[in-house]
Each structure stands twice: as C-alpha cells, then as structure tokens.
Amino acid sequence: MVVFHLGDQVFGISADHVAEVVPNAWLARPPALPALVAGILDLGGQPVVVLRGDRLLGFPDQTFGLDASIMVMKADARPTRIGLMTGRVSGVRPLSACRALDVAPETSFRGCLKAQLAFDDLAVSLLDWALLLNAEERDRLAEFGARDHDRQDGWKVQPA
Q1: Tens digit of pLDDT for each residue in 140-152?
Q2: HSE of 124 in the Cβ direction (CA atoms, 13 Å)?
Q3: Exposed, middle or buried: residue 47 (CB in 10 Å: 0-12, 13-18, 19+)?
Q4: What is the pLDDT of residues 109-125, one digit of tens each?
Q5: Is 38 in contact with 150 (CB distance < 8 Å)?
Q6: Which of 22, 58, 77, 91 is deepest in the core (most CB within 10 A)?
Q7: Residue 126 contacts by C-beta under 8 Å, 6 or more apart in sequence?
Q8: What is the pTM of this model?
C-alpha cells in the first residue's frame, strides 16, 4: 500500500490503484473550479483532475507546501484521470508486514475505510479508493474534465 499523510493522520491506499506519485506541482485553476478540486495537473500533455485529500475526507483545509505529494491514480473506465493531493507520501509498505483490524462499514466514512493497520512504528487507516467518490461525484468530475478538455482544444491552431 502507498502510505500518505494528511495533517496528523496516516492513510494508505492499495498500490494497485496508484499509477505514480509526483511532487507538488503548479496546477491550473480554471474558473468555476469545484471546491473539492485543487486544480488540473498537466502530466505529459494529459490532464489530471487533482482532488484535495483534506476536503475529500472531511478534514479542515490544509496548506499544501513543497513537501506535498500528488498520487496519480491508475486510469480506469472514467474518462478523466484523477489525482489526490496529500500532505506527503511517505512510501510503500507491504501488507504482509502489518496486523489488520477489520472495520465495520457503518462506522467508517461512507464505508471507504477498509481496515486499521498496525506496523511496528505506524498506525495506518487503509482506504478503499473505489468507495472514496460516490457515483454523483464521479459523474461531476467526468463533466468537469470534459469541459476542461474542450477548453484546451480551443487553443489548438486550426488548419487554414
């Protein structure tokens, strides 16, 4: 799992869902950006909608400094690539090196907390990436990504 920090909390997401981790970068901030979205990352010419991890998980707003990280999630059926702004990513840990305590879905945020994991030196809340966004949020992100893509297409030079 990829381990990341938001404030004084430590979380993990299965490495199966994470394509790459990039350092905090300049993000485009087009007009009418939803509050949950930190901005748009240009990753090799492909737009990635970067969500604020603090707002997604219901924490008070945080300031993301130079040590912040963006986890770019693997492409799936969604037309829009998604990234997650975190305080920082501290590494990858094997699940085999921890003790797991199951968490009842009704006691976790939208059931996205899969387990509490205990390593020798760290306690990690393992999140289920597939459950972090509900269907309506995914649809809105897809619409937003499509609008941003159309806007970028408007800057391409048209043949004479």
Answers
A1: 666 666 666 566 5
A2: 29
A3: middle
A4: 666 788 888 887 788 88
A5: no
A6: 22
A7: 1, 11, 12, 13, 14, 100, 113, 114, 115, 116, 117
A8: 0.80
